[in-house]
């Protein structure tokens, strides 16, 4: 079975990714931190690195790393308490720049987004020029640098944005996609996680060309429902549109504790503010959910999750706490607990409120 890519020639997609966003905001707001290795996150033995400056990354410090490990890797590491309100403020400033060019903006997080500039408000034919202008305006308005990837689909654009980091950009045309993806290490492919990447390496699949050389039948046999996806991305096929109305798949919250929790009573008490945070986030997004999940991380860093899915959508504290408490009691943790988390999925996204607009896209000249 041979799959031919859809005609992507006329699509012009930009992926903007801020450079070490949280850490860069801190260095911008406190000039004395510029050029120094900093980590945004808690400095205690329970702390976790949320972001690291490029100076810290040279020592192997990275996000989601234990603060203790980060401090050992980089003895002069400076820890900064996160200021998420400030990061959101800067993110909104950046997003305003995006909307100067297109309304087809799909934010992925505070520091990255996809833009479809096939048709844009400034009638600029070159997506590469638009990316340069956006990056220059971000620098002028916020003092921060951004990197960009430009291509005919979201998948290639996202990979390309990482190619010339920091403060750079990379354009990959339709004709260049196979040559661009071929030598890339398999772990550089967005959407291939650590487990899948290791499985591929064990099978002798080390780069994009190795993956592209495999048949669809082989990939489906070894990777089941992900086989078709891997077959397509190895060829740069990705037809997902930029979605300005992207909805969350789940809403959650968690907390890592200064001291391990050793009793059910301690855990029950610790879950109260976490669940309240989730309830507040559900209310803000105007959603409810049917599937409720409890996450437990033990002192040996092993993690378990326990879920319950009902027929009714819930968003109230009492409803969620009752189910979470039942899951906790059923699990009855025997080891000390360092983290608890709660998430709600299978959300009712109020699809009836969403109006799908069909925008006619006239044929444009090739070129990014």
Automatic annotation (TrEMBL):
> What Gene3D superfamilies would the database entry show?
3.30.70.270, 3.40.1170.60, 5' to 3' exonuclease, C-terminal subdomain, DNA polymerase, Y-family, little finger domain
User: In which residues is Mg(2+) bound?
Assistant: 17, 111
Where in or outside the cell it occurs: the entry states: Cytoplasm
Pfam (any one): IMS
Signal peptide feature range: none
Q: Which NCBIfam families match?
A: PRK02406.1, PRK14133.1
Q: What is the gene called?
A: dinB
This protein's cofactor list reads: Mg(2+)
Q: Where are the catalytic residues?
A: 112
Instruction: Kindly give the InterPro entries that the UniProt entry links to this protein.
Output: DNA/RNA_pol_sf, DNA_pol_Y-fam_lit_finger_sf, DNA_pol_Y-fam_little_finger, DNA_polymerase-Y, DNApol_IV, PolY_HhH_motif, Rev_trsase/Diguanyl_cyclase, UmuC
- UniProt-recorded name of the protein: DNA polymerase IV
Q: Which domain of life is it from?
A: Bacteria
Q: What is its EC number?
A: 2.7.7.7
What are the recorded Gene Ontology BP terms? DNA repair; DNA-templated DNA replication; error-prone translesion synthesis; SOS response
> What terms describe the molecular function in GO for this protein?
damaged DNA binding; DNA-directed DNA polymerase activity; magnesium ion binding
């Amino acid at each position: 079975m041979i799959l031919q890519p859809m005609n992507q020639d006329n699509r012009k997609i930009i992926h903007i990714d801020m450079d070490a966003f949280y850490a860069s905001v801190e260095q911008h707001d406190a000039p004395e931190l510029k050029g120094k290795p900093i980590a945004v996150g808690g400095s205690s033995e329970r702390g976790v690195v949320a972001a690291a400056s490029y100076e810290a990354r040279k020592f192997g410090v990275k996000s989601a790393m234990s603060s203790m490990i980060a401090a050992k890797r980089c003895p002069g590491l400076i820890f900064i308490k996160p200021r998420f309100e400030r990061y959101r403020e800067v993110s909104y400033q950046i997003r305003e720049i995006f909307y100067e060019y297109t309304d087809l903006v799909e934010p992925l997080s505070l520091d990255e987004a996809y833009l479809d500039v096939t048709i844009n408000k400034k009638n600029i034919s070159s997506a590469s020029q638009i990316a340069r202008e956006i990056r220059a305006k971000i620098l002028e308005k916020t003092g921060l640098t951004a990197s960009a990837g430009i291509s005919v689909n979201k998948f290639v654009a996202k990979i390309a944005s990482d190619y010339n980091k920091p403060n750079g950009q990379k354009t990959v045309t339709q004709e260049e996609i196979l040559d661009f993806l071929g030598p890339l290490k398999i772990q550089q492919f967005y959407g291939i996680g650590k487990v899948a990447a290791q499985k591929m390496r064990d099978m002798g699949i080390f780069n994009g060309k190795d993956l592209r050389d495999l048949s669809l039948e082989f990939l489906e046999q070894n990777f089941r429902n992900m086989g078709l996806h891997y077959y397509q991305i190895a060829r740069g096929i990705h037809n997902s549109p930029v979605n300005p109305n992207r909805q969350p798949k789940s809403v959650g919250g968690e907390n890592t504790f200064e001291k391990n929790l050793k009793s059910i009573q301690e855990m029950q008490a610790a879950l109260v503010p976490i669940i309240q945070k989730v309830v507040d986030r559900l209310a803000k997004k105007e959603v409810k959910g049917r599937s409720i999940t409890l996450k437990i991380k033990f002192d040996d860093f092993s993690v378990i999750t326990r879920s319950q899915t009902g027929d009714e959508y819930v968003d109230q504290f009492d409803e969620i706490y009752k189910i979470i408490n039942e899951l906790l009691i059923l699990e009855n943790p025997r080891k000390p607990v360092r983290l608890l988390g709660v998430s709600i999925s299978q959300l009712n996204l109020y699809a009836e409120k969403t109006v799908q607009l069909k925008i006619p896209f006239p044929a444009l000249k090739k070129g990014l």
